[in-house]
């Protein structure tokens, strides 16, 4: 079992602590939180060992799980990597693309593995259809959340939209050609609602909307490709796959048939996969353990996290235009 330590014991950090403690792939050594009052509270309530310094925790483990505010990701990652420890970094990977690129270089130099916590890649609905998403040409996503003061220190693009950016980049195998975007600050000092149109070199277009001031929560993506429509509901954890094929000469009574202006007839049918339940955060942590133990590439690499961050900042820059 790999020895793991958690940096940060806030809301998400406590979830990581609980799941690492449950996992049969990790031995939870303990955690570090700079807020001594919170550290004592977490240690007393859950029994996890609290370390006095970051260095002491890093020295005691094989894997450092960094669940700290984004501003501190780079420094935490740098210290862990230089001690030869593998790193799991919550999203976004760092506060800037430059910091993220340096993390990549350090990981290569010290021969350690890194994974970024883009948890929607492990959402059971997305996992169930990812292999069916092939050469999508139009993508539409809505990620809407009710207002929560936690996270409003960064634009909604880095808080929410980056989840969809990463998922889209994982299925569109083409470089980004152009980005148009707009964002509006309503409650916070940074944009609370944003829309981006990403055009790829292969002709694919992704239209992404994110809001943290909505009256209800929604996390949906729709993928359109030749002869197929694929819908993913990340919140409800279900998906729908609608496909088309050449219509039979003699359709059945219940067959759904479409005929276009040229007289071409297509049959519509459903190809919905099973969606086995899972805990996405536990899955991403354990997939990282597998990558370390088997010396394979993590599912969400440091490069993936950096590219998602790069596009996120290009969207934020597009607001100003």
What is the residue-averaged pLDDT? 95
What's the alpha carbon Rg, rounded to whole Å? 22 Å
Total DSSP E strands: 14
Question: Which topology of the largest domain does CATH recognise?
Answer: Dihydrodipicolinate Reductase, domain 2
Question: Topology as H/E string?
Answer: EHEHHEHEHEHEHEEEEEEEEHH
How many angstroms separate the termini? 51 Å
Question: What is the class of the largest domain in the CATH system?
Answer: Alpha Beta
Strand order of the largest sheet: 7-8-9-6-10-11-12-14-13
The dominant shape is: globular
Provide the structure class: alpha/beta
Instruction: Report the portion of residues in β strands.
Output: 25-35%
Strand count, sense and barrel status of the largest sheet are: 9 strands, mixed
Number of helices: 9
Share in helix: 25-40%
Number of domains: 2
């Amino acid at each position: 079992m790999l020895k793991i330590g958690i940096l940060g014991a806030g809301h998400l950090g406590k979830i990581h602590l609980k799941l690492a403690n449950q996992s049969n792939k990790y031995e939870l050594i303990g955690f570090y939180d700079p807020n001594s009052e919170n550290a004592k509270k977490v240690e007393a309530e859950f029994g996890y060992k609290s370390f006095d310094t970051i260095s002491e925790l890093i020295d005691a483990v094989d894997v450092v799980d960094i669940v700290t505010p984004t501003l501190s990701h780079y420094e935490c990652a740098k210290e862990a990597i230089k001690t030869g420890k593998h790193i799991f970094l919550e999203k976004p990977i760092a506060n800037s693309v430059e910091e993220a690129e340096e993390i990549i270089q350090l990981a290569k130099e010290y021969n350690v593995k890194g994974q970024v916590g883009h948890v929607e890649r492990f959402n059971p609905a997305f996992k169930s259809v990812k292999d069916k998403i092939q050469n999508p040409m139009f993508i539409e996503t809505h990620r809407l959340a009710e207002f929560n003061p936690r996270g409003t220190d960064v634009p909604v693009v880095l808080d929410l939209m980056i989840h969809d950016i990463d998922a889209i980049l994982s299925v569109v195998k083409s470089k980004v050609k152009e980005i148009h975007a707009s964002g509006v600050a309503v409650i916070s000092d940074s944009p609370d609602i944003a829309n981006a149109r990403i055009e790829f070199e292969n002709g694919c277009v992704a239209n992404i909307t994110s809001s943290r001031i909505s009256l209800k929560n929604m996390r949906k993506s729709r993928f359109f490709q030749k002869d197929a429509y694929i819908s993913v509901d990340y919140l409800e954890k279900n998906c729908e796959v609608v496909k088309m094929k050449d219509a039979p000469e003699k359709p059945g009574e219940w067959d759904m048939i479409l005929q276009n202006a040229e007289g071409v007839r297509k049959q519509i049918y459903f190809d919905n996969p099973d969606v086995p339940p899972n805990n996405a955060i536990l899955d991403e942590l354990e997939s990282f353990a597998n990558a370390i133990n088997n010396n394979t590439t993590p599912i969400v690499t440091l490069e993936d996290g950096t590219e998602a961050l790069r596009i996120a900042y290009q969207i934020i820059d597009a607001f100003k235009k």
